[in-house]
Amino acid sequence: MDFVQPLLWISLVLFLIAIATPRKFTYPLGAAGWILFGFYWAFQPANYLAIDDYFNILVCLLVAVFCGAVAYLMWTKADDVTLLITKAAAVGGIFYFSFAQFSSLGNALTAAVASQTALLLNSLGVPAVQANWNVLTLNGAPVQFILACTGIQSIALFLGVVACVSAPPRRKLAAFMVSIPTIYILNIIRDAFVLTATGNQWFGLPPNSFFVSHDVIAKFGSLLALMLISYLVFLILPELLDAVVGVFDLLKGGVKGAS
Predict the structure, then answer these.
(1) Torsion angle, CA of 99/101/105/110, rounded to 10 degrees?
(2) Any domain includes 122
């Protein structure tokens, strides 16, 4: 499926053109971009079938359906809320996929996070060793870092929504500082926790300690942290909460109208 990756970048380019072009072209171009973006996500489950990752299969299919709904509403209603979603997708999507699709950028970010995690642990007296650009070890137990370990997905999400909302620059900067740097720092702390738990066998042998610390405790902690950060961002930018409500109302109305 060599055609899938071009679909992604064509859709993101269409988003950019749509938000920069006169209004009479904005909504048709944006709708076309969302259709292609939806096709990109619709083909992603094939990557997860091989590893039996049914959760991500479901997520990709839901995102594809969401893209189709936005495309339909953008074409039929030309509502400003759909333009807001398109702006957020353009900013967040280009930021995230630049790291996800170009290995030089993704590897550089992953290596930086691994090094900073080792630096944090060493400063606390924990003898973590950087065995490779993306591998840290503690007491002989290795933990490999991948792009997801950098928190790039959450950073891209908040970057997109904060950048797109209409609000005074001062409050947008405050929302940015509350979300982006905080996510990055908390993510390094999370990685440090996982390595410490794995290397010290806090929950049994290293494989089991990694599973409990990474897949259970760290994921639950990340969810709580993102909920708190979202709450703070909504306090700083109530316009964003209005936008979220507008998206739900628009989608709800679109589903009723199409049925």
Answers:
(1) 70
(2) yes
With bands split at pLDDT 50, 70 and 90, how would you rate the model's confidence at 258?
Answer: very low
The residue to which tokens 């189709």 are assigned: 68
Residue that has been written with the tokens 């936008």 in this structure = 243
Number of domains the chain contains: 1
Burial of 12 (0-12, 13-18, 19+ CB in 10 A): buried
Q: Which of 105, 104, 84 is nearest to 241 (CA)?
A: 84
**3-state SS string for 131-180:** EECCEEEECCEEEECCHHHHCHHHHHHHHHHHHHCCCCHHHHHHHHHHHH
- Rounded Cα gap, residues 243 and 161, in angstroms: 10
Taking only the tens place, the pLDDT of each residue in 175-230 is 999 999 999 999 999 999 999 999 999 998 999 999 999 889 998 898 899 999 99
> How far is residue 4's CA from residue 241's CA, in Å, rounded to a whole number?
33
Domain-embedded: residue 120: yes
pLDDT above 80: residue 52: no
- What pLDDT shows up at residue 253? 63
Instruction: Give the whole-angstrom CA distance, residue 118 versus residue 133.
Output: 11
* Domain assignment of residue 139, yes or no: yes
Is position 219 within any domain? yes
- 244 sits in which H/E element: helix 238-258
- The residue segments making up the domain with residue 197 are 102-241
Which pTM was predicted?
0.86
If 0-12 CB within 10 Å is exposed, 13-18 middle and 19+ buried, where does residue 252 land?
exposed
